[in-house]
Write a structure and sequence with these properties.
The structure is a single chain. This protein has about 180 residues and is mainly α. It has one domain (about 25-155). It has five helices and four strands, in the order E-E-H-H-H-H-H-E-E.
Amino acid sequence: MQPRLENIHTAPGTGSIVEPHESATAVALRIFLRLLFTLGAAGACADLVLIGHVDGRAQQVPLVVLAGGLAVSVWMVVSSRRAPVRVFQTVMMAFIACGLVGLSLHYRANVEFARELTPDRGGLGLFWTAIKGASPPSLAPATLIYLGLLGLASTYRHPTYAVHTFTTHDSGEEEQ
């Protein structure tokens, strides 16, 4: 039983098997999501540099992660292999982790500041004061979480991870 190979295609210049009939909508959506990621990451990076978020290693981590995400995004444009997609997904997980750590650091800094101003404040009042804190903005690191999720969404069902089926001549059944 020889499989019919007319529905299996390779990416130009790579020899990689790609989804033969990926819809134009899926391709356009993936490109749009990656564009949104790129604009958001570049904007966040510029914002951090402009506000001087560069004092010490802890403040430089988001800049490094953002720059890494942008670099891997460019790598994905110039290569149709699995490696850049997998590295991009890993970097997006780093975005999410950095965003969660950043939320904690910003919140703790605002709690300490609020306690200095009003040492007797606690409970829900302290929480709301810390969350509303403007320096550092408590929820700003959530941008990294958003960008990480956006980047991961852009790799959903990426063609380099497609499962391919083919039909045998004899039985007409699909095999994987």
